[in-house]
UniProtKB/TrEMBL annotation:
Coiled coil segments of this chain: none
Protein name: tRNA threonylcarbamoyladenosine biosynthesis protein TsaB
One term of GO molecular function: acyltransferase activity
Any GO BP: tRNA threonylcarbamoyladenosine modification
Domain Gcp-like, residue spans: 30-151
Family under the similarity heading: Belongs to the KAE1 / TsaD family. TsaB subfamily.
Gene3D superfamilies, sorted: 3.30.420.40
The keyword Transferase appears for this protein: yes
Annotated keywords: Acyltransferase, Cytoplasm, Transferase, tRNA processing
Organism: Microbulbifer okhotskensis
Compartments reported by the entry: Cytoplasm
GO CC terms of this entry: cytosol
């Protein structure tokens, strides 16, 4: 399978081509200029592979959660590219990709669960917990919460110990009380991990058309549900 993945969810910009098990990737840690950098990186990766966009089987992108602006940049780019050559798109959880990257960087963590955390601003984090057996599916429903709520949820959850933590969202002081054996605040999302996760999702049949691709903000979804509840009362 040949799949091209893009990501601009957080403080990095990356593009990766996974073709029959071989990975070609470009990764830049930069807070700005994602829009300017992304398409040239796509061209570089495709050129190195000697491949045209139309030869791909699918594209993949982080669906979120994450920065509103960051998500929109990559999603809009993928929509334009996929639509131009009629390619399906596989949406991948940014948190699952963060956890997979941390597990790859820390082989000593073995197959233990990884709690992935992204800073959601306003004293909150986006988070989920991912296992090696089912890396696309959070053991606790992905959510946006304040750190104290996350710590309580981790303590109450029946997760197999030890549990490790990954991501910049773990910088809050409250996480010092979390039942985490070790944390890596430097973990970032990489397009290569999104491509790896997209393969089993593709096999599940979760690909969508470019027009159907939508970001998963979590915060907006919760607000919408609350509004719907108020209106129904």
């Amino acid at each position: 399978m040949k799949i091209l993945a893009l990501d601009t969810t957080s403080g990095a910009c990356s593009v990766a081509l996974l073709s029959n098990g071989q990975l070609i990737e470009r990764f830049i840690q930069a807070e700005r200029d994602h829009t300017r950098r992304l398409l040239p990186m796509v061209d570089e990766v495709l050129t190195e592979a000697g491949m045209k966009l139309a030869e791909l089987d699918a594209m993949a992108v982080s669906r979120g959660p994450g920065s509103f602006t960051g998500l929109r940049i990559a999603i809009s780019c993928v929509q334009g590219l996929a639509f131009s050559v009629d390619l399906p798109v596989v949406p991948v959880s940014s948190l699952a990709a963060l956890a997979l990257g941390a597990r790859r960087a820390h082989p000593e963590w073995g197959r233990s669960p990884v709690a992935a955390m992204l800073d959601a601003r306003m004293q909150q984090v986006y988070w989920g917990v991912y296992s090696a057996e089912s890396p696309n599916d959070s053991l606790i429903t992905e959510a946006v919460q304040n750190p104290d709520q996350v710590v309580l949820s981790l303590k109450e959850a029946a997760l197999p110990a030890p549990v490790y933590g990954a991501g910049p969202g773990l910088h809050y002081e409250a996480f010092e009380q979390a039942p985490l054996a070790e944390v890596d605040l430097t973990s970032l999302i990489r397009a290569g991990d999104i491509a790896q996760l997209a393969i089993p999702l593709w096999e599940r049949g979760t690909a969508v058309s470019a027009e159907q691709l939508e970001p998963a903000y979590l915060r907006n979804e919760i607000t919408w549900k609350k509004r719907q509840k108020i209106r129904s009362q």
